# Entry
Amino acid sequence: MSDCISVIVPIYNAEAYLKKCIESIRNQTYLNLQIILIDDGSEDSSLAICRRFEDLDKRIEVYHRENKGLVSARKMGVSLAKGEMIGWVDADDWIEPDWIENLAGLWINTGADIIAASHFHDIGEIGVKVENGFVEGIYERKNILPKMIYTGNFFEYGILPQIYTKLIRRDILQKTQMQVDDRIIAGEDAAVIYPSILEAKHICVSDICGYHYVQHPGSMTKTSYSDEKLRVRKLIHYLSDVFEKKEVFPIMNSQLKVYEKYLLSLRQISAFDEYILAPFGGVAYGSRVVIYGAGVLGQKIYNYVKDSGKVEICAWIDRNWEVYRKNGFKVNAPEKIVELDGRYDIVIIANITQKTAMSMKDYMKQLGVKEEKIRWFSEQFLYEKV
# Structure
């Protein structure tokens, strides 16, 4: 089965999206697939859907078990895989017909141990291409490490951590995925991708894009937990241990510190606060604030500020405001800020990527917002130690 590729789909309560996901895998132009569906104790009709597809396609193998979590489900998938290379699809996403064929072509032509491609982040009808921080090419591991997690611009990945944008040699995953702590529930992808790069001789970075990560209405407001800081630090400690054992910690240490800061900003921004929104330089109680950005970070900031009761939100704006409106978010077009006629104290740029944030800042200035009122992450926050 030298040319067989195993595709693993961990599944938990995904009945609304699962049919489209599985159909997109079955309809791949690359035919020699082993399609492994791991139902991790779903309580809806996901298992029944899987069984119906198993009857239709001999390439599909369905496994059902009690719920043990994503990391454990992935381990089961790796243990069952027969292909020399393994790919992944999340149960609520879908792939274009030539996605696997394109990745397989790179693998066959380059002999790389890991193929690292791009993906589309779909919000409604809008798809944004998300790319790696390296230009296309074949890299030796040593040339990846200095910017593997973080390019130096906050926050731009060197190699995207998403497992679903990769083809990885099965023998590598048998070392890396199988060692991941089952209790890691923040950054499960990073916990296997970055250690896998340390096991690879050659990594092929490509701008090929055919995977659709879909931000569904039900997932737009990401679940928050009071112990997000502990969850993030469990991942960071795990990666630190791996880097120590592989003797690359001196190269990776500074990247890990910024990565931790990024994850906490995204998952529990209050972890930094001695007062409201400390990472943005601090916001005085009673201030009138405009939040520009309604993605994951914008939602975190909106809910945090609203729940604090100490700062007034006078507008929440985003260029994709119509999509968010349709899904119940009280978001307006950026031009709404003109109607406020300066009756606000601060505009918070709620985007984690520096390049995008600066573009958003420029747009605010075009709409007449004074530069001194616009806030992104402060210099102190970006460069202080975690």
Residues 249-267 form the longest helix (19 residues). The chain has a mean pLDDT of 93. The CA atoms of residues 146 and 251 lie 6 Å apart. The domain at 270-383 is CATH 3.40.50.720 (Rossmann fold).
